[in-house]
Write a structure and sequence with these properties.
The complex is a heterodimer of chains A (557) and B (198). Chain A is built from 16 helices and no strands. Chain A is mainly alpha-helical. The radius of gyration of chain A is 24 Å and the shape is globular. The N terminus of chain A is likely disordered. Chain B has 6 helices and no strands. Chain B starts with 19 loop residues before the first helix and ends with a helix. The chains are: A mainly alpha (557), B mainly alpha (198).
Chain lengths: 557, 198
């Protein structure tokens, strides 16, 4: 009888009406479904944010362009930045974490499945609030539209006097709501990793992805909470007539800057550390070698986590801090480059002497290595306060952080997509299309962001909606915009590949990469319960131990 | 394939991991601490920066009685959970009720203080920087007390219905961590607002 019931449950899931199956996705608390929801939601937002970026680049392609008005341009850069950070980068990384962590540590779900669903829907609702501003920003005032205060929304521009209507209200509430979701996810990550590991998986035997997401969780707790607090203050100012950031009543605009960047800089590491985690899983598998220097990798990550809490004011050199402040934040910024450099050496050490397979995930990770190095070098340049006084708020800064976010984060995210797509969908992607995606995106990325440094050094400030001809900026802006179309073409190939493979891709099997971590021991896609019996591990590479019983890892670890 | 055991012929000690509830609550407390830190920093930064009166000295009096009530509720909740762990459900109910009463006294005292300030002194959140920071910080804490009291009241209802059993002591123990945290925050808020800020 019991077996009959089970057989009925599994027999033919596709036979149920589509409405019922969609309902399953809405009420689900399963970490795999929520992970995929996070990822799909972020992909949608990625397209929206990409369109906003394209609009800005078309406006700047030639001097004195009239593609959009200055007001629309301001909305575009605000919405682009807010969308990409809060509703693309964070949820996509949370999505991968939510999907992968329980599988990689050998458990059946997150520690708090309902909190997991709550966190996702809070994030989704936050994005909805942000985009509802296009309709609702007007309110009853007849003024206001989408937010136009920049993604860091400096005071006093956000006060009622300078931001009438509801535009800034939507911005602050969207961040507040999604921030609560992020904190919930972080609580869940930390608790899952500390309390749900399968037998034998001590902290020293966890996959690096779990370790790095543990540190990320800690950073979210310590970084997003201050932002949430600051948004509560901004809401008090706007809704209740408070004076936190009201310079007319003695409030300090600089205090907002501090509060924002106390969030803002650790946030960079919240985004990049999960990408380090992807690289640390992908590079060993495609080099056919275990990761080089596992303990050092963990130590460097924890060091980055700590130091990242003390570098925030390097975003504020140009507001005029004391010389001690400048010296301190310059020094900490230099120091944080050290553990990051250690990691780059570790990845190179992993590849060194390996049998490297240049599949799409590996290509994206190699791109990441080079680009992240350059991003780090311009970061050190900008971290030196005198240099920063010259180039602060210029296109050099824009080029630098896009090098981190696109060249570092987005590249590894694409790599992670190709690496885990077979596990999530059960089908292989098309390798030729993936290579097209890689090369188109690589060319587009370098056209756009390499050449974006130059107008910055020539004095072009960020956030201007147009510029005078004859300043030497014209040709560079043209090249930068041309690159955008290559990137867009790459993303189109990516989406096409995703859709094509989902329906037509060949079956992937459990373990297409001959990899070593636990997620590859179960079926693709994994069943609801992940593992029929909870695995027991003896080393960092449990699948290696199974495949090579004559020479298991635990003999050496 | 699912049983991934390559039996290493050695130690088979029990596999014990920390409790989910405690780790989750400690993580949440860390997040809440960061939120309060920002509000406390803003309060301290703005002490004496108001461009117009009134000042803390004109308005605030030390709320010693309510502070004592709130702090002693930490002791009563501890005794309540301990009683439940020893399966003394009746004793648990008494201590739990006392916790609820003490927390409620604190909240009523805050309400009376605010009523006095708003209706008799005309001092609101938009009066000056002191008003903004005072009502936000004390209000944020009072909000946390309210959330805690709602949870305590819920557990109290279940106790009266006879649904609380000794096996629930771990959950209530996890909740008591939150309540202790709220009390510790009050020590800090009290010191900053009523001692240093005055």
């Amino acid at each position: 009888m019991a077996s009959d019931t089970i057989a009925l449950g599994i027999a033919d899931p596709d036979a149920r009406p589509i409405g019922e199956r969609l309902h399953d996705w809405v009420v689900t608390v399963d970490h795999k479904k929520l992970g995929i929801l996070y990822i799909l939601y972020s992909l949608l937002m990625l397209v929206i944010g990409g369109v906003e970026a394209t609009i800005m680049r078309i406006q700047l392609i030639v001097p004195h362009n009239h593609f959009v008005s200055p007001q629309v341009f301001n909305r575009m850069f605000t919405m682009h930045g807010t969308t990409m950070i809060f509703f693309v980068a964070m949820p996509i990384l949370f999505g991968f974490g939510t999907y992968l962590i329980p599988l990689m540590i050998g458990t059946r779900d997150m520690a708090f499945p309902r909190l997991n669903a709550f966190s996702f829907w809070m994030t989704a609702f936050g994005g909805l609030l942000l985009y509802f501003s296009f309709i609702g920003g007007n309110g009853l005032y007849g003024a206001g539209n989408a937010p136009d205060v920049g993604w860091f929304a400096y005071a006093p521009l956000t006060s009622r006097a300078f931001s009438p209507g509801h535009s800034t209200d939507f911005w602050t509430l969207a961040i507040l709501v999604s921030g609560i979701g992020s904190i919930g996810t972080a609580v869940n990550f930390i608790t899952t990793i500390l309390c749900m590991r399968c037998p034998g998986m001590t902290l020293g035997k966890m996959p690096l992805l779990a370790w790095l997401n543990l540190v990320t969780g800690g950073l979210v707790i310590l970084a997003v909470s201050p932002l949430t607090a600051a948004q509560i203050m901004l809401s008090i100012d706007r809704f209740l007539g408070g004076h936190f950031f009201d310079t007319q009543a003695g409030g300090a605009a600089v205090l907002w800057m501090h509060f924002f960047w106390i969030f803002g800089h650790p946030e960079v590491y919240v985004l990049i550390i999960p990408c380090f985690a992807f690289a640390s899983e992908i590079i060993p598998v495609f080099s056919r070698k275990p990761i080089f220097g596992y303990p050092v990798m963990v130590g460097a990550t924890i060091a980055i986590g700590f130091i990242s809490m003390s570098v925030w004011a390097h975003h504020m050199f140009t507001v005029g801090m004391s010389s001690y402040g400048n010296a301190f934040f310059t020094a900490t910024t230099m120091v944080i480059a050290v553990p990051t450099g250690i990691k780059i050496f570790n990845w190179i050490g992993t590849m060194w002497g390996g049998k490297i397979q240049f599949k799409a995930p590996m290509l994206f990770c190699i791109g990441f290595l080079f680009q992240f190095l350059i991003a780090g070098l311009t970061g050190i340049m900008l971290g030196a306060s005198p240099f920063n006084w010259q180039l602060g708020n210029s296109y050099f800064v824009v080029a630098h952080f896009h090098y981190v976010i696109v060249g570092g984060i987005l590249f590894t995210v694409f790599g992670a997509f190709y690496y885990w797509f077979p596990k999530m969908s059960g089908r292989m992607y098309n390798e030729a299309l993936a290579k097209w995606h890689f090369w188109l995106f690589l060319i587009g990325f370098h056209l756009t962001f390499d050449f974006m440094h130059i107008p910055g050094m020539l004095g072009m400030p960020r956030r201007i909606y147009t510029y005078e001809p004859g300043r030497g900026w014209d040709i560079w802006n043209l090249i930068v915009t041309v690159g955008v179309f290559f990137q867009a073409a790459g993303v189109l190939v990516f989406v096409a590949n995703l859709l094509w493979s989902l329906w037509k891709g060949e079956s992937a099997g459990n373990d297409p990469w001959d990899a070593w971590t636990l997620e590859w021991s179960t079926t693709s896609p994994p069943p609801d319960y992940n593992f029929a019996t909870i695995p027991v591990v003896e080393s960092r590479r449990p699948l290696w131990d199974i495949k090579h019983p004559e020479d298991p890892d635990w003999k050496y670890e | 394939m699912s049983s991934v055991a390559v039996a290493r012929p050695s130690n088979e000690s029990a596999w014990v991991l920390p409790s989910r509830g405690r780790v989750g609550m400690f993580t949440l407390i860390a997040a809440e601490s960061a939120v309060f830190t920002i509000f406390v920093v803003a309060y301290i930064y703005y002490i004496g920066k108001s461009l117009s009166g009134p000042t803390p000295k004109d308005l605030l009096e030390l709320p010693i009685f309510s502070a004592v009530c709130l702090l002693s509720s930490s002791l009563t909740i501890h005794l309540a959970v301990r009683a439940l762990r020893k399966a003394k459900v009746g004793v648990f109910g008494l201590w739990w009720f006392l916790t609820m009463a003490l927390g409620s006294i604190f909240l009523v005292a805050t309400g009376r203080e605010w009523h006095h300030l708003i209706y008799e002194k005309g001092f609101t959140i938009s009066t000056n920087l002191f008003g903004t920071t005072y009502y936000s910080l004390v209000g944020l804490h009072a909000f946390h007390v309210t959330v805690g009291l709602l949870a305590i009241a819920l557990a109290m209802i279940f106790t009266l219905l006879g649904k609380v059993k000794p096996e629930h002591s771990e959950r209530l123990d996890v909740f008591s961590l939150y309540w202790h945290f709220v009390d510790v925050v009050w020590v800090i808020v009290f010191t900053v607002v009523y001692v240093i800020g005055r």
